[in-house]
## 1
Amino acid sequence: MRIVIVLACSIVPKTLSEVLPGTAATIVALHVGQEYGRRMAGLGLRPGVSVRVIRISPLRGPLQVRAGHTDLILRRSDAARIEVRAVA
Amino acid sequence: MKRIALLGMPNTGKSTFFNRLTGAGARVGNWPGITVDLLSAKILVAGGMVEVVDLPGVYNLHGFSEDEQVVRRFLETQPVNLLVLVLNASQLDRQLALALQARQLGVPLLVLLNMADESRNLGIRIDVKGLERTLACPVRLMAAKFGTQFSEVKQTLQDALRDHPELTRVDPQAFQQDHRIEEALDRLVSESVHAPVQLPASLTDRLDRIMLHPWLGIPLFFAVLFLLFQAVYGLGTPLQDGMEWLLAHLKSAWLDPLLLHLPVWLRSFIGEGLYDGLGTVLTFMPVIALFFLAMAIVEDSGYLARIAFLADALMSRLGLDGRAFVMQLMGFGCNVPAIMGTRIMRSRGLRALTMLVIPFSLCSARLQVFLFITTAVFSPTLAPLALLALYALSILFALLTAFVWRGRYPSHEPLLLELPPYRLPTLRFLGFESWRATRQFIQGAGGYIVAGVVLVWFLTHYPFDVVPASPDTLAGRLADFLAPVFSPIGLDNLMAIALLFGFVAKEIVIGALAVIYSASPEQLSAILADRLDGVQAMSFLLFTLIYTPCLSTIAVIRQESKDWRLTLLAVAWPLALAWTVSFLFVQAARALGY
Ligand SMILES: Nc1nc2c(ncn2[C@@H]2O[C@H](COP(=O)(O)OP(=O)(O)OP(=O)(O)O)[C@@H](O)[C@H]2O)c(=O)[nH]1
């Protein structure tokens, strides 16, 4: 039983940093403070938007994500502060 | 005079449009209360002069990043006839937010949807008339890079200026109220932008599969760097040498005969102070022009953002970023353009830190000195080892400097960058960039460089009745006075004078030593081998490696940072470090019995 729960957790991402390359998730909230949140919104990262993780740079480097018609890079630590849910 | 301000998000082609509109005549203007350089130009529109100002790219009008504050400050203090908003037509899903914010400002607005070529290729259809209705201002599609629709845009600009002959200030309230515009944005986008659900897989995606490949990405990055380095310095250094040759030739053929009848000191002042000072400025021009050409290619093609992606994992641990790394490596050719190149970094702290670190890159001018002295003093087996050690130390001291000062120049800038599609840069705009950087170097740093060269000339030539660069000159007396500083690091007064010359430029150190010992360059090798033991020579090399690379580097640090404290630190810290390292080395070597 416990194993099943653990597995389920690892499949359903809670933050953008957990989303696997090649899959998408919907942004629920940005827990990054107002200033940085504005900047993210300016680049198309805002609640309700669906983002796809394209690839991750080696050595735990930045993520390349696609939101709308824009590709962006951001650090894993910042991605961890973006709450997501699986795409319906 | 009428005034137009250009506004837009970063990377939307604002500068490209500005260049097309204004030509090559743009200058950096001074605006009250604004510390960053803003390009502006005066153009003729329908018989009247109009000033066009290119504002920094911003993501929104309410944030507090440096660029956002600059834009706000400019718009609050400078009235305009027209605000031109440049948006990327293929990213309207997010960029229209800025249009909604700009509309609140209460100044006449013109919206240009740039990169129409890319949006068309992606199959995006835009209802321009609908946008005009909702935004209540003229909207035009265009492609600034290719000049598509440009005449129509100019006509619209002209009409808008005619309709708004008076300068208007923005509504001061507008910046305070940060309305939630998400809903309005979603509505506007769904009404007027029609994009296919699935964007076609692009050439960029395919290229990135190779360029950003987990294993291939980094080796390819180094290959690109190597090519850049070769292109800039493989071409630039011979040009630099050619320039030096030409200047020397002109001097002996034209200047010297002209000065023949002047008193000796005046002849020396003009020929060796002023002329050599100007020559120093001129010899930097080819590398700066080539460097900015190469950097503009890297930036315009979209590869620069990819470097950040590839190198960030390593560089962020040092408090630097991938772009800093590129500049650091380019600094191994010449520090001056590398420091100017830091302008691609938006964060002030990061930029300052990078400017402190770059001068430790062992540039080609220092390499000349090192090659000469190591071969003169060390055995053929030891010489390459000494050189290798100097390279290793160059990197070590760069890392040390980053580590020590990153607390004082922190970077709050998170890494959040657009990864633009790969684009082919156009020659015309590359030329603009390169020409502009060269001109800025001459205007911003040229005066200081000439003044510095003249000062060192004076120190090493006054009083005029003694042998230049001898112990009887001001420089010699200064060295005498500083003997307690230099003797613990194993250097005598004559070497100290050579170091003073080295402050102007490292490539003249060997020539200066020849003058100081009144020897020909051929004899100098033997004299140095005779006068210096290995420990002294190494101490001299270490000091030369670490202390101020050259006057021109300091002058561009001041030009780029506009910060005297940083400039002072960029002189004082390396000096202190150089002395300490040489001191520790000499004392340790002597203690070990060498
Ligand atoms: N395909 C296409 N590319 C364009 C067009 N206009 C500009 N570009 C390219 O877009 C990139 C960014 O252009 P810039 O003019 O540097 O953009 P900017 O908005 O000034 O960007 P910042 O300098 O970051 O503020 C460059 O590679 C240009 O060559 C266009 O109409 N079509």
## 2
Amino acid sequence: MERILEVKDLAIDFATYAGTVHAIRHVDFHLDKGETLAIVGESGSGKSVTMRTVMGLLANNARVVSGSVKLAGEDILHKSEKALNQMRGNEVAMIFQDPMTSLDPTMPIGKQVAEPLLLHTKATRAHAMKEAARVLALVGIPDAQARLKDYPHQFSGGQRQRIVIAIAIINHPKLLIADEPTTALDVTVQAQIVHLLKDIQAKLDTAIIFITHDLGVVAGIADRVAVMYAGKIIEYGTVDEIFYNPMHPYTWGLLEAMPTLSATRKRLFAIPGTPPDLLTPPQGDAFAPRNPYAMKIDQEQEPPFFAVSKTHAAATWLLHPDAPAVDPPAEIKRRKQIWAQKEGNHDYR
Amino acid sequence: MITDKTPLVQVRHLVQTFNAGKKDEVRALQDVSFDIYKGETLGLVGESGSGKTTTGRALIRLYQPTSGEVLFAGQDIAKLKNGSAQMLAFRRQTQMIFQDPYASLNPRMKVKDIIAEGLDIHHLVHSPQERDARVAELLAEVGLNEDHASRYPHEFSGGQRQRIGIARALAVEPQFIIADEPISALDVSIQAQVVNLLKDIQDKKGLTYLFIAHDLSMVKYISDRIAVMHNGRLVELASAAEVYHHPLHPYTKSLLSAIPEPDPDSERQRVPIAYDARQAEGGQRQLVEVLPAHYVYATAAEVAAYRQSN
Ligand SMILES: Nc1ncnc2c1ncn2[C@@H]1O[C@H](COP(=O)(O)OP(=O)(O)OP(=O)(O)O)[C@@H](O)[C@H]1O
Ligand SMILES: Nc1ncnc2c1ncn2[C@@H]1O[C@H](COP(=O)(O)OP(=O)(O)OP(=O)(O)O)[C@@H](O)[C@H]1O
Ligand SMILES: [Mg+2]
Ligand SMILES: [Mg+2]
């Protein structure tokens, strides 16, 4: 397996008027060639900041407190701006969460899509524009050729996102980071885009990091999943491990909060409370105040990772050998039963 | 829940064309008609680019309609004079929560000033203390806290910004809220909170919502009725339960078949039903009440077939 990305012990602070925001608090993960890693987690948990760091795109008020980010063996955090520019749009491309800020409102879209080719390859202008029209059609912009000269505001939210995807894939990157690329899209287009990304992956062996809060999409696209909360990864595993054998109460809450078409509940399950303010991260487990299963130790000491399998671990004291057995929510028990069946006589908690 | 069916908003044969007559002409809305009843939530779903945002914007009079009309409480909003008392009242009664939480917040304003903008315009608070207190209350209502008031939008994550937008809309105590994909930028746990929150506020204050979304599974929870758009037209309109359990238009069926479920096994087997727009082209089509309170955009022959199959 060729390792594309290795992030170790990454911690990032932001200086703000109100004080220092400890946005990323020691994060580790890795990604191999051709793999898809999904990152899920609450709004503000640090998904975008982590990925912007991988792209070498830190905000001015950001400070790397610790850690390393290795992309194809090279350390990103110590590269010059020039080297980073060479890398972006070439080896690694990012589809940003917000299509409007990643498109230039004053430039026709055809030119914007063609730009990575013009910057990083020897393509002629005419060829680049032709390629731009082709990729725009590929991502589902109707009459792409005729609309090359249109400006971003003349497209709908979903269309703008597809234009951003076109820019990201036109140069066949090794690593594609997609930050909620389908949130603005309806499900049929979302299904097409997910299909498109998988297709690109199969053809080019692209590694993909997919950030989303839609666990339905995760179930369909991911090989592995990392769950983030308050600037940390709190559980990771294969897609089956996370969906059928989740261990962290936060992961439980996320799965419970998903509406399903068949369910008839009148009210949605919502994880109570709000995430902690990262100006003053709590001392113990950051999720403790919202966790109905929290124990005394959760208030005092941060849980380490406990391994569940070679590929699966969760940072919750519930996995400590001395922790009392707990009764997970009904929806989680239902999932663990599926896991037990999959594993044969696997003992589940 | 709706008790009476008094329409608050009436959309009549609305047509919205951009760049008319030019090469890049876009017919964003083509003869769209529907009512929104007082106190109900109408969900508006449909493909990206189908005209949902354009519909929402037309209802707050961001555009002059190419043709057709929009009535709010019986009044043609195109006829409201800028600066008139009626216009000011309309601007307060109708609020929009925008799809794009980044673009819709002024980056140079503090959160408290963004939220209080409407309070100031409509003179709803009378002292700085009252203003701060009201802002704090609104922040709490949307799950943020007081400390956030003096920060700037760029210091927030996407989801947090969306909640600021919701607080801003609620500030002026409107009657009617157009929520343009208010939860798309939020993670599931917060989506559930916001959907529950919007429902609670509605129950408490009797608000009317147009809830624009592409996520049908969420829309189902919040909507009384659902309108499905495709290509600038309404193709189906019925109660939420009807749309889910008894969809008639092929586009609605395709939309339902594409909803991903949080279950890797079923996702591996998913076969979405493709929708070929050509199957709904040609012929004389209109929005017809095929079954009681269930409307479908169809030809006479299709209407007969739909009724037959029932
Ligand atoms: N430039 C900045 N200055 C100060 N704080 C920041 C800055 N950028 C991000 N943050 C803070 O860092 C934290 C992580 O933000 P991030 O954008 O990574 O969240 P996210 O997980 O992507 O959330 P969402 O799902 O809402 O997009 C948040 O608390 C946010 O307020
Ligand atoms: N100002 C404009 N000028 C030209 N075309 C426009 C303008 N605004 C919207 N359009 C076009 O009108 C159509 C409908 O756009 P609209 O934004 O209403 O779609 P939508 O249903 O909200 O899509 P999404 O789910 O992607 O937000 C699209 O084809 C879009 O490109
Ligand atoms: Mg983000
Ligand atoms: Mg829209």
## 3
Amino acid sequence: MVKLRARCLLVGDAAVGKSALSHMFHSDGALFQKNYSMTTGVELLLKCVNIPETNDSVELYIIDSAGKDTLVEACEKMWGELSLLCLVFDLTSEQSFANCSHWMERVRAYCQGCHIPGVLVGNKTDLCARREVQASVAQEWAQSQGLEYHETSAKDKENCDAPLLSLAQAFHSLYRERLETTQNLGPG
Amino acid sequence: MIRSSLNSLGAKVVVAASSDENHPPESIIDGDTKTFWMTTGMFPQEFIIRFADPTNITAVTLDSYNVKHLKVEKNISQKASQFEFVTEKELEQTEGHLQSNAIPLNGSSATHLRFIITSGYDHFVSVHRVSIQN
Ligand SMILES: Nc1nc2c(ncn2[C@@H]2O[C@H](COP(=O)(O)OP(=O)(O)OP(=O)(O)O)[C@@H](O)[C@H]2O)c(=O)[nH]1
Ligand SMILES: [Mg+2]
């Protein structure tokens, strides 16, 4: 039995639904805020996730960071050391999807080559009539970036847990891999 | 060189920031580099070794993997608190084999040694053995 700890960064353009998703995940679907209240700094949420078919768990420190461009730089100073990445865009905004590559560049530069498991989330599936980004396109880009792709609706409570659960599992797998490597090391 | 393990000398690991049941902090002082304590994510991570009696220590040798930056503190109290800074070191990364680093402590006397790992080359790092020269 082991309890792992991971710091998970949520980024993406303003108003794509990062705070909505993180609150939904944190409150197990109890809370959806209809009125937009912009995040101006970083908000920290803590949630413990059990890993299926093991006695292990991952304690996620979720860092919900402001998406507004003028606030990003200040927020970056509060990101701390990152273990996981959750990159969110709005399925009804082509622009928010296009900007994902800038977010990736920023996070990569920040992490300085350290590999962190990540997911790409297309949010607001409930607004299907206004959809501007096709799943296949998003999926393809995600794959090219080594991210796992998910679609969610915080409003309809659709699939909201999946991105962070899969990140917790990825972190757990990484731990298992590292254990294996460490067990096979030669002496110094 | 034959050196007895720290636990046979009455030393104990009294605190560790995190641990996996299968890789407990006691693995650090059993003298065996095959067994190890593995951190479980995020830094800093620390462990504290208590000696049965105040002990003069010239140097400690740390066998580890993926540890990047390490701080060492000590005290001469019965309690594991109120530490004073002794030294810090940036360790080189190794691949496929353990890092082995001697860290001079200048013969200082200690009842507790506190090792604080402030960063790593990976999300998880391991400590396989701490041995002392006195
Ligand atoms: N229809 C719909 N609206 C959503 C969904 N998720 C979030 N919203 C709405 O979108 C707006 C922005 O959501 P937030 O969660 O505050 O967005 P954010 O990404 O945190 O924005 P910043 O804090 O500015 O970076 C709010 O009005 C939410 O109610 C969704 O799945 N469907
Ligand atoms: Mg927000």
## 4
Amino acid sequence: MLKIDNLHVSYGHIEVLKGISFSVEMGEIVALIGGNGAGKTTTLSTISGLVRPTSGTIAWKGENIQNAAVEAIVGSGLAHCPEGRRIFPGLTVLENLITGTAARPQRKREVDEDLALVFDLFPRLKERLKQGGWSLSGGEQQMLAIGRALMGRPSLLMLDEPSLGLAPIVIEQVFDRILELNKRTGLGVLLVEQNSAMALEIASRAFVLETGVITLSGPSAVLADDPRIREAYLGG
Amino acid sequence: MGQLIVNGLALGSIYALVALGLLLIFNTVQIVNFAQGQLLMLGAFIGISCAVTHELPVAAAWAITMVAMALVGIVFMVLVYFPLRGRPAFLVILTTIAMGIVLENLALIIWGPLPVSLPSPIHGPPLRFAGVVISMHQLFIFCTLAVILLLQFLLLTKTRFGILMQATAQDLHTARLVGISVNRTIAVAFAFGAVLSGIAGLLVAPIFLAEPTMGGSLGLKGFVVSVIGGFGNLPGAVIGGLFLGLIETFGARYISSNFRDAYAFIVMIAVLIAWPRGLFGEKSSEKV
Ligand SMILES: Nc1ncnc2c1ncn2[C@@H]1O[C@H](COP(=O)(O)OP(=O)(O)O)[C@@H](O)[C@H]1O
Ligand SMILES: [Mg+2]
């Protein structure tokens, strides 16, 4: 469904992605693992169209999108849930969710259905509907950021370090919901994480990114047992 | 006394409009448009061209001016903001100053240096109570400000597009990332900001005469008023505008009218000493 081929990205003269290739199939959860500064966020931003590659292709649903506009990419069902959540602080929970519908066709019935789905997954958001985004806890903000991404009716959801700064119990809740969503709706997920134990648990396959190069890849069960991974990313 | 209050509030309403236009653009793209006063002047002259030169009904002149100013706002964005997007903000701000000078010279060439007057869209005997006279035009100014505040509030908070505009203003990068066509929301902010200036010009021209150099001090006062109100805060700017209108009117009456334009800056400095973030400046989360 999503196929990245030999992608190179530079900021100025510094090459940050040095020819990475990977793919995500329909309905699959794939983890992209790497330390700080490895180029994970850059990878997602390039897929979203926020950053342009110097070379390489990004095929999405059979079309090359590496030069498409961000709103066209989001509108075609590729949602990006950003690092640090980035919800709009001055908008209410409901308004934040509405911003997620910006690039999709506005059929009221479908929008209402998707709102119902988000509230079903995250009942907490429904309780906080009229509250300002700034007043939410970190976990609630992450739920809202995921909900906002879901409001675009994506077929692939890209999550950039959703566990960042959250308590372990909250992380578990969030990952539970992601897994449930994947089971229920067949949503594909590209999950970017540094702390990867939990990510490897819910993903079927994983890639390891180190300073712009994919160094390891395979089924996540295999990677979870790999001594190199255990040492570098699973805390020994 | 009552009369001075009415006059001061009418003048202040115009400052408030200039500030609202300035802030609509600033909140969206973090650029202070120092040509806002020249846009006001342009609005006044487009109105005069329609109503005086071509003898159209004043209501038609208003309609044409508003449409024209929306286009001017978009052209302004394309010429000033787009080419310099991502560059240091001061470069863009300098460019807005240059653009103001260009507009002023253009107006000199097109309309000449002589002051011209524009009729008010409504006529009739002034209202009087308790010795205070409120002219029809002053009443019209108050109503215009009230309607604009209401419309702006409804647009920004009750419509889907308004929510997307607010999102763009709060976090441009994330707005793009969630799929908002930010060029569209920014264009609307520029168009709306220019229209508000144009309306201020249409409202000023019947009181003071219109001339190509009228924009400079009015634009600066719109800026001063925004600072007083806590930069970025819309209700603060409106209150700041009314406040400055009152100070100037009372100052001119009781102190000296020679310093009329200086009061704005004296007040701004005094306010900033007492409240460094302006009267209503605080949480950046409630910008728009
Ligand atoms: N906008 C940018 N401009 C210049 N360099 C950047 C920018 N964003 C990221 N980088 C650099 O690119 C590298 C990869 O960053 P990033 O993709 O954010 O990594 P990760 O998400 O894996 O932590 C880092 O060295 C970072 O400093
Ligand atoms: Mg990152």
